[in-house]
Design goal:
With 394 residues, this protein is α/β, with parallel strands linked by helices. The chain is 35% helix and 27% strand. It is elongated. Bound molecules: nickel (II) ion. The site of nickel (II) ion has 3 residues, from loops.
């Protein structure tokens, strides 16, 4: 395959991909409610004669493209959900649904996925393997990926490789991130229930104050990253919610803390989870309260296969000689793509999409989020070529 053909092919499709993206943008749907979006995806895939399965994890769509050879199989994942955000872009393609907006670029991802299928379909007779397109519902913290995996998306056929991508509005169009190794952190949620004994605000000696105890626990938790984690590793422990009390003159009987933990390795993760328990119960004992810690795993870390990342890096360099390509872009954000990557050689790519000169640089999840649509054709050819190079190499 001469990959410049795919770059040109994606440019030819650009108008169509932009029109799809704007249509999805006008009609955003929240997680597990992407009925309209999934319907369009399914009919586009059926039009290309792909084997389509809909209604996986409510609104997920899987479509299989079969080339010349049965093996290998590359999984390509694109997310479809919008966010509960009131749009303020004022564009002609702004959301027509109050309080719902594509503020993360998943409208673009869905359009890119359809673009990749159209682009590869133009070369179907040469396609050296199979492509499993996965259109994911509910990426935004609602567990869409875990449900799709539980419903068998990684079987029949089992992918040999997994690829996905995200637009990045903190990077300009022409920037590509193909990280070698860990790229995005694994995430957990913690909740700490603190029980004391309430009473009059003027008689603290007759109470066991859970507010003070929760404050001490909040402070002490900050010692974990600074004093327990090896300084050469990265980790986050953030207390983000502190709830207690209903009146200024009443010491309440309980307080609740919630927050998130971000890590890249199983060792650091285990260490932090153990220390959150120890610190909370140790401080609770000292303060005379009870502390109960509840930990919920959200996603494992996104870890790119180093060999595969190096290969895709040189591919991207040859396709886009003008592009800036980073191999060490790491974020503490998390992504449920991790569930499609566990045990499978994989890569998660970042594609820069901002244009500061046109004010297309609002951050993701912001009501004014919008991006340079030039990123759509770039990502389409990049994903198609990445996929092709993996099929071809095997
Ligand atoms: Ni996103």
């Amino acid at each position: 395959m001469d990959y410049s053909q795919l770059v040109q092919g994606a440019e030819t499709l650009a108008e169509e991909i932009i029109a799809l993206r704007r249509d999805f943008h006008r009609h955003p749907e929240l997680g597990f409610q992407e009925h309209r979006t999934a319907g369009i995806v399914a009919s586009e895939m059926e039009y290309l004669d792909l084997e389509v399965r809909s209604g996986i994890a409510e609104t997920g769509v899987v479509a299989l493209m079969v080339g010349e050879k049965p093996d290998p199989t590359v999984l390509l994942r694109f997310d479809m959900d919008a966010l509960p955000v009131q749009e303020e872009t004022g564009t002609p393609y702004a959301s027509i649904h109050d309080g719902v907006m594509h503020a993360c670029g998943h409208d673009g991802h869905t359009a890119i996925g359809i673009g990749v299928a159209k682009l590869l379909h133009n070369h179907l007779s040469d396609l050296p393997g199979r492509v499993k397109f996965v259109f994911l519902p509910a990426e935004e913290g609602l567990g869409g990926a875990e449900r799709m995996v539980a419903e068998g998306v990684l079987e029949n056929p089992k992918p040999d490789y997994s690829l996905s991508m995200h637009l990045r509005n903190d990077k300009p169009l022409g920037w590509i991130g193909i990280t070698s190794g860990p790229a995005m952190a694994g995430a957990e949620r913690f909740k700490i229930e603190i029980r004391g004994e309430g009473g009059h605000g003027a008689a603290p000696h007759k109470t066991i104050d859970p507010v003070l105890a929760a404050a001490q626990i909040t402070n002490a938790l900050q010692s974990i990253v600074s004093r327990n984690v090896d300084p050469r590793e990265s980790a986050v422990v953030s207390v983000t919610q502190f709830q207690a009390g209903d009146a200024f003159n009443v010491i309440p009987s309980h307080a609740t803390l919630q927050g998130t933990i971000r890590t890249f390795t199983p060792e650091v993760r285990e260490l932090i989870l153990a220390r959150v328990e120890e610190v909370s119960s140790g401080v609770a004992t000292a303060m005379g309260v009870d502390a109960h810690v509840e930990l919920t795993r959200l996603t494992p870390p996104v870890v790119n296969d180093r060999e595969l990342a190096a290969k895709l890096h040189s591919l991207a360099e040859s396709m886009f000689p003008e592009a800036t390509i980073s191999s060490n872009e790491i974020t503490m954000g998390s992504e449920d793509m991790a569930f499609f990557m566990e045990g499978i050689p994989s890569a998660y790519l970042f594609v820069g999409s901002s244009d500061t000169s046109r004010s297309l640089d609002a951050p993701h999840h912001n009501p004014r989020f919008d991006f340079d649509e030039g990123a759509l054709s770039m990502a389409t050819s990049l994903m198609a070529a990445s996929e092709w190079s993996l099929l071809e190499a095997s």
